[in-house]
Amino acid sequence: MISLSCSRRGLFSKALLVGLIVTLNQVGFSQLVCQISGAPIVQTGALTAGDPTQTGRINRNGITGSCPTGKTNALFNSTPVVQDNYTFNAPVTGCATVAFDATQCTGATTQVVAYSTFNPATPGANVIGDFGFSTTATASFSFPVTQGQNYTVVVHDILESPTNLFCPNYTFTVTYRQNCRQPGFDQTNDGQADPVVFRPSTGDWLTLNSAGGTLTQNFGLSSDILTPGDYTGDGQTDVSVYRPSTNVWYYGNNTVNPGQNFTAAQWGVAGDRPVPGDYDGDGKNDVAIWRPSDGFWYVLRSSNSTVDFVQWGRNGDIPAPADYDGDHLTDRVVVRPDKVGITPNYRWYQRLTNFNFGFSLVSSWGIVGDIVVPGDYDGNGKADVTVFRPSNGVWYTVPSVAQNAVATTSSGFQWGTAGDIPQPADYDGDGRTDYAVFRPSTGTWFISNSNNGTYDSFDSPVWGVSTDRPATAAFAVSP
Q1: Quick one: CA dihedral 192, 328, 331, 21, positive or negative?
Q2: What digits encode the pLDDT tens for the residues 342-351?
Q3: E-only strand ranges, 354-478
Q4: What is the pTM of this model?
Q5: Residue 344: cis peptide before it, omega within 30 degrees of 0
Q6: End-to-end CA distance of the chain
Q7: Which of 98, 181, 240, 344 has the fewest CB atoms inside 10 Å of its own CB, making it the most exposed?
């Protein structure tokens, strides 16, 4: 792997553009953006027989706490368990993420819960977040906080039969994030997606800023795959491309002249699919590929330049990365078009960072010909399993709270027609993914603004021409 920053002219000059057009279809996804506030707080501890106890524990319901909604939970039983508790004061208004490492617990099962106020006699009250299950490995969850707010993180054991097992060594970190959202291409960091097109004939990215005005940036070749995202951690979307001919990633380090100030990373081999996202939780996009030949995800962590690789999926699958469990980490998900003559015949295999009751999820949703377009359509901080059906222009969604079921409803949202390219993103800044399509025949964007769930307005700017490739939500690639 080679990674370098460059500032010389010529690498992206228009004279170098070639005529080859990528044959893979660009598919639209919303992309999580968060800005890290301050250094993470690291806490270590151990559960022992001499620790104080609490009266019972909450139910492990498999639902992860997330921002902006947090969560509540009910008491599961009243059997005493030992616990450690730690009280923190939030320095910012935003989101707190608790990442727990129980790998040194020697098999002891632990549970972690966040409370607005904690009373060991009533541990079912004042719950604001938990990761939905007990663990012997790693897990994380999030919940909203306000500046100056006190909250308590409780680590406790789970009653084992016939005796209790205690964790001799655990660690958790608390990270504060602000401006968490899934806007898509957000050039000005105002929380609203901007209609953006890439023009293969010139290598230009043309942005219609939500804050007003336009911007033209020259970056890339006509044969490149578009991979925009926040690679620098400043909240602004950076222009970026993956070059299949050389397996090199390029992303701009600023918005002024990215063609002269960019970073290049050699990452991948022929046939790989780019799947960028924030896999390590540092608030920056990671360079990442999925390899159809062996089903491996290879991630170059932006936090420490190390490599993370996990096998998930097989040849013929469609990679669909997003944050499905609300812990601010990109989840590895593939959609398998089984084509076995039943409906629904798309299988979503979700290897979530938080799993579900400790297991991966399999959701059945979609039919052959659908385009996979996950996004946070209900505004709860988690991506929803969603497809866009070109044959009738309908978007069909399974809410994140029901993704472990086989959904059979035929309801959906009508927005678009055959030939449209879906571009889901948060264009109105309300924290929900909006239904949006780019119509190449007229160069028109049709954006249905969610307006906090009412969908009572829409925009239809003309921005682009028939040969442009929309780039507001363009980073994933589907066969």
Answers
A1: positive
A2: 666 888 898 8
A3: 361-364, 371-372, 385-389, 394-398, 413-414, 421-422, 435-439, 444-449, 457-459, 469-470, 476-478
A4: 0.86
A5: yes
A6: 26
A7: 344
